[in-house]
Hints:
This protein is an alpha/beta fold and about 450 residues long. About 50% of the residues lie in helices and about 15% in strands. The chain has 19 helices and nine strands. Strands 1, 2, 3, 4, 5, 6, 7, 8 and 9 form a nine-stranded mixed beta sheet that branches. The protein is globular and about 65 Å long. The model is unreliable at about 1-10, about 15-50, about 95-110, about 130-135 and about 440-444 (pLDDT under 50).
Amino acid sequence: MRLNYSQTYALTQVLDLFRQIGRDQASLIAETDGRVVAADLSRAKYKGYVPEKKWDLILETMLRIADTARKAARKDKNSRHETIANEICGLVEKKVRRMEGTAIETVDIGSLDGEELRLAALARRCNESLNPDVWSATTPSSIYTVRVPYPADPPVGDPEFSRRLIGDNWRRELEAIAQLRIQLEVFQAKMRAVVLDANGPSGECRVRHKDESEFRGLLSGARIKTTALVYLIPFFYTADRRFDYGVVRYGVHRHLGMLVSKATLRGTLGSEIDVMERRDFVKFLDPELKMKIHHVDPYSAEHILCQMLLESQDESLLDRFNDANNPPEVNLAAAAAALAKYPETTLFVFDLADQFALVEALRKDPNASVFADHKILRLRHELEIQVGLGYSLRAFDWIVKRDRLKILHRKAFDLIQGSRSHLERAGIEIDAPKEQRKKQTTKG
Length: 444
C-alpha cells in the first residue's frame, strides 16, 4: 500500500497546519468554537486556526491518515512514513488531552477511562451549544427514561407462509420472539426503577418516563442534542451514533436478518444456505447481478453493512455497495411493496427480532405470491456492535456521577441474563461474566 505523491503532500500540509496551530494559535484553538473558516485544510492553514466544531472531523481524519501511513511504513519499510504517523498521533494526542483537561469540571476526570473522556469532551461541547456561557458540562434538570415495545408483537396470519420463509423451526422462533418481548417489557420496567434509585433520595434531577410506540421519533437530532435521554430498549451502538450517544454495554450484535430469493441464492452461491458470511454477501454486489439492497429506517442495517464493508478496505467494494443500496423504507409494509416489484434482484436486510412482523407484511402485500420462493436467513457481519442502554450526550454528566455508571452496568447485566438465549435468536450475544469484569461502558 504505497502512498502516492498527492497523499504524501496532503500529509505534509496537515503536519504544517498542526505545527502552526500548536506554535501560534494554541490558546485560540482551546477557547474558540465560533470561527468560520474554509473546510479544506489548505485554507485552514492559510487562516491559521480551525474552529472547535471541526475538530472531531479533523481528529478522526488525522488518525485515519496516521494509520494509513503506519501501514505503508510497515510494508514499504519507509521511515519517513513511520515518522509522519508518529508525529500525527503525537499532535492528536496533545490536542485531545488539552480538550479533555477542560472537558468537565463537575466530574472526577481521573475516574474515567480514555473512551469515556472522549464522550465527556463531546458532552461538554453539546452543553456549550445550548448555553455558550457555560464552559463545563452541567447536570440536566430532567432526565427521561424511554421505553419502547421490542420486538414487535409477532403476528402469524398463515403458518404455511411462515414455514416457507423461516423454515420448519418457525414455531420455535415464534415462541422465542414472543418470550423476548415479554422479558424485555419486564427488563425495561425494572431498569426504570434502577434509574430512580440511582438518582438518589435527594433527587439530583427530575426523572421522567416516556413510553413510545416505536423507535423512530427517539433519534431526532433536535431531541438528542437538547434532552437527557436513557433508552431502555436494546440500543445498537453503530458508528453513526458515536458522536451523539453513549452506551452502557451488556452485549454485542452479531447477526442481521436477510430476505432473499432461493433461486438467487443458488445462482450466486451454489446452494441455499441458512447463515451468510461476509465473503458470501460480497458476491451479491457483483454489478452483473444488478442487485438492490433495501432496509427500513431507523434500524441500523445500512450502517452495519457499511461498517462491515469498510473492514475490507476495498474502495471499489464500497462503490458497488453505494450503487446497490436504496434509501430506507418508512416501514415494513412499504418495504414489502418495494421488494415485490423486483423479487429476484433484491436483498432485504432487517432486524432479526422483526422477522415475523416482516413475514406478516409480505403476506398482506397484494403481490405476496412472488415471495413463495424466498427465505429468511442470518447474515454474520463479523463486527462487534455494542448493545446496551443507550443515552444521549445531555445525560452523560448524570450517568458518570456517584457511581451511577457502575450501578447501571451491573443491574442491566444482571437483569438481562434471563433473556440470553432469546436475544441470540434476535442476533444479540450477551457478554460473558468474565468479560464483563474487564469491559465497562465504552464509547467508540
